[in-house]
Amino acid sequence: MTTLALDGRFYRVSLAALPDAPKRARRFLKDQLTRWGLPSGDDTAESALLALSEMVTNAVTATGRDSGPVEPLPYETVATIEVRTAASCNGLTVEVWDNSPEMPVLTDASQDQEHGRGVFIMITLAHEWGCRPEVLPPATMPGKTVWVSFKWALPAVAPAPATVRPAIPAQRPELPALPRRAKQKTPAPTPTAEPDALSQWATGPDVLMRVYTALRASTRTALQTT
């Protein structure tokens, strides 16, 4: 089954307003239908191709040369025509821009008349049509865009169900435990006390005797002097 690639965006091509412009426009639309995966031989595609041919022919008649060589003549200034097309699941839209500000007019042309039936054919084939003023750079004078749209009933193609995998929580890889370094306790600094003068004195009975003897001597000396 053909996969449809309908994105709804406009694709465009610029053509010289020369006699072969309608043929080039039809080729562009056929190639685009193929890229979208649409058959170029069904009724909607054939109607769009015929309407586009008439629209481009009118644009060439209004702004360029519709007879003679298909190549530009020496010193001939050739106008530009832009063809745009977009497709979606609802239908097909075709637009043609030229640098003529004159809007298309529906005329009562006879069946054997060569020109003047383009608008009648266009509005007969299309579901909707219209025109609007539009300036296309680098042009400075306003031109116009003529558009037609076609509706179609494409079979609904259900997309293939996507394979949904259950979510798996992320897991950290198991790493081997690293050896821990034993924390060494730093011993508290021992306070250094200044040496006590009295602690350096010797202790014992001999010391007490010396003190007693010194005290008696000092007392005796004091009594003798008085």
Please write out the topology:
Elements: E1 11-16, H1 21-36, H2 43-63, E2 80-87, E3 91-98, H3 118-125, E4 128-134, E5 143-151, H4 205-225
Antiparallel strand pairs: 1-2, 2-3, 3-5, 4-5
InterPro entries: Anti-sigma-factor_SerPK (IPR050267), HATPase_C_sf (IPR036890), HATPase_dom (IPR003594)
Keywords: ATP-binding, Kinase, Nucleotide-binding, Serine/threonine-protein kinase, Transferase
Domain Histidine kinase/HSP90-like ATPase: 16-129
Protein model, in words:
The protein has 226 residues and is α+β, with helices and mostly antiparallel strands. It has a domain at 11-151: Histidine kinase-like ATPase, C-terminal domain (Heat Shock Protein 90, 2-Layer Sandwich), CATH 3.30.565.10. The protein contains 4 helices and 5 strands. Strands 1-2-3-5-4 form a 5-stranded antiparallel beta sheet, with helices on one face. The longest helix is centred in the N-terminal third of the chain and has 21 residues, at 43-63. The radius of gyration is 54 Å and the shape is rod-shaped. This is ATP-binding protein. Pfam families: HATPase_c_2. Residues 16-129 form the Histidine kinase/HSP90-like ATPase domain. InterPro entries: Anti-sigma-factor_SerPK, HATPase_C_sf, HATPase_dom.
